[in-house]
Each structure stands twice: as C-alpha cells, then as structure tokens.
Amino acid sequence: MCDSIKCPELFAPEWGSLACSDTHKELGVGSTCHFSCNKGLKLEGSSNVECTASGEWTAPPPTCEGSIPVRCPALITPEQGTMSCRHPLGNFGLNTTCYFGCNAGFTLLGDRARRCRPSGQWTGGTAACRAVRCSELHVIEPGGMNCSNPWGGFSYGSTCTFYCPEGQVLNGSARTACQENGQWSAPMPACQAGPLTIQQALTYFGGAVASTIGLVTCGTLLALLRNHLGTYGVFTNAAFDPSP
C-alpha cells in the first residue's frame, strides 16, 4: 500500500496569517493555502501556494515587510480626574501623549503627562487622584463627635457633627466639613455649662454663698457664677443679668 503524497507543513509569516483549504491539515496534493499580512505591512512573495504531485509547494512561503505600527495599552481616566490625549499616529499609537488632572478637592498621584514610546510602553507611572486631607479631629470632652468620610478619614468631603452631654451647651458650630483647600469649614467647638435659672444658680452654690458672705446682691452672685462657670451666658432670666 502506497502512502499518499503530502507537502511540508506551512506556518503563518511573522506579523501575518495563514489559511488553508484542507482544514484537517493533511496538506495533500491539490491543497491550497493563502497568506496575508497585518494592516500596514506588505506581502513579499506569493500570496497563494498549492501542493503538487512532487510533494512540494508551488512557491516558498512569503514574508511580511514594513514598519510595524506601534501601539501602547489604552489608558483610562482616573476616578475623580480628567484625561486628554493627542494621537498623531492613531489611537494610543507612537508619540501619543496623554495629560491628567484631578477634580477640585483631589491631588494627582503619578505623572501629569505620559507618552507612548517606540517600545509600545508608556513613559511615567499610572495617574490617580487622592482626596485632599484635613487635620485630624478629636472628640470634644465631655461631648462626642460623629463623622462621615466618603473618601477616607478626615479628607475632602468628610463632615463631622458635635454634641454635648445633657446640661451643657455647644460653644461653636455643631458641624464642620473638610474643604478642597485642606481646611475645616469651622473650628472645633467646646462644651460649656448651660444657662441656669436663678433657682438653679442658688441650688448650684447651696448655702455656701450665704454662710460665707452673707446676703449678696444679684450683681455679686452673677459675678461669682461667671467666675466659676465661664463667661458664656449664665442666666436664662435676662432681667436678672445687669450686663448690657
């Protein structure tokens, strides 16, 4: 029994492709193959060959010649940032230059500009945007603080609210926000003794005032209370407070 005649196996040229009529790759007599090159390259040689009865192809395999188009991996716009590119030789081709920026409240990490090199790689490092940070806040004593941090602790967009225990009042703003310039919108507040009625003031000092000083005037009592509790408003009874 005689073996069927076959031609040598063919391979696609570098930067090209190969398609043969014999999908089972038997490459017997009469089999034909077609060569093609990638876009932008020229085929040097015959684009079609056929297997002859002598077990040889009608022409040697061709080659693909020309300059290989350079392409760099596509870049993406950083979150909370911007990207603009100039493509002189096609999208993300050789010498494409991309510029990066960040939205208000964010700073750029990485390079502001990147260029596609002949190697198909970008210059510089990956660009990213990070939220501007504000100084760390601490819980006011004896009060409390609640914060919301959408972009990380004490960073742009963070908001904090403050509260005081029962019987004390907040001296300052109850809310502050981290701004795009890295500053808080309001300074930290403080907890101070709340306003007292006349009866509460007398109860606060008990009999100590009377036993030590004797009968005191309203103005004297007010001065004593202010000296002990601070200059923030003491009385809820405005008529009792002689100050303007």
List the helices and strands and how they pair.
Layout: E1 16-20, E2 32-37, E3 42-44, E4 48-50, E5 63-65, E6 81-86, E7 97-102, E8 106-109, E9 113-115, E10 128-131, E11 144-148, E12 159-163, E13 168-171, E14 175-177, E15 190-193, H1 198-205, H2 208-213, H3 218-229
Antiparallel strand pairs: 1-2, 2-4, 3-5, 6-7, 7-9, 8-10, 11-12, 12-14, 13-15
Summary of the model, kept short:
It holds the Pfam family Sushi. The chain is an alpha+beta fold and 244 residues long. It contains three helices and 15 strands.
Strand content: 25-35%
The number of helices is 3
The count of β-strands is: 15
Query: Order of SSEs, N→C?
Result: EEEEEEEEEEEEEEEHHH
Write the CATH architecture name of the largest domain: Ribbon
List unreliable stretches of 5+ residues.
Answer: 207-219, 230-244
Total domain units: 4
CATH-level-4 superfamily name of the largest domain: Complement Module, domain 1
- In order across it, which strands form the biggest sheet? 1-2-4
> In one word, what is the shape?
rod-shaped
Given this structure, which CATH class of the largest domain is correct? Mainly Beta
In this structure, how is the largest beta sheet organized?
3 strands, antiparallel
As for the CATH topology of the largest domain, it is Complement Module, domain 1
On the 0 to 100 scale, the average pLDDT is 83
Q: What proportion of the residues is helical, as a percent range?
A: 10-25%
